[in-house]
Amino acid sequence: MRERVVVLGPPGAGKGTQCKLLAAARGLLHLSTGDLLRAEVTTKSTLGQQVKAVLDRGDLVSDNLVLAIVRNRLALHREGWLLDGFPRNSTQAAMLDDLLADLGQPLQVALQLQVHEEELVARLLIRGRSDDTEAVVRKRLQIYARQTEPINAHYQVRGLLKCVDGLGSVREVATRMANSLNECQQGEHAIC
Fold this sequence. Notes:
The chain is built from eight helices and five strands. It is of the alpha/beta class. It has one domain (4-185): P-loop containing nucleotide triphosphate hydrolases (Rossmann fold, 3-Layer(aba) Sandwich). It has a five-stranded parallel beta sheet with strand order 2-3-1-4-5, with helices on both faces. Helix 1 crosses helix 8, helix 4 (63-76) runs parallel beside helix 5 and helix 6 (117-127) crosses helix 7 (134-157). The two termini are 24 Å apart.
């Protein structure tokens, strides 16, 4: 089965860890937009040069540029894939839908890792980044919630959103993620 999955979740939910495990266990191409952007810059491709110029200015990479990079990777990989933390806003979600339709690779499921705010704050503060004060972390989580609500609704309306409890050990969460994908393959699209 060529699984095509988007994994969503707030900062501190464990997306990166869970995506790596899930991709390895199921033989999926793991696409993290941050990793893709860095890789594109390293290759010094035309897109990479554009990304480098944007990053050097301290700006955010545009939705169109990110989508162009994602398109390049998905066009070369017809097997299953997993997008890690992308899309990040409703504009990107709509653009991704169009891209996937063009490629003939419709999304099968959007997994939303859910962790309550107090746990997220604790996890992010433990990370120990110099800019991670409680006030800054809470503000980031509020921004994430504001930007992500429309994405969740977008996928929920289409019957593609599945929520996964992100609390517990790495192994427990990984098992829940895998079970959610198995349920989707069996036609069970329980929504959040």
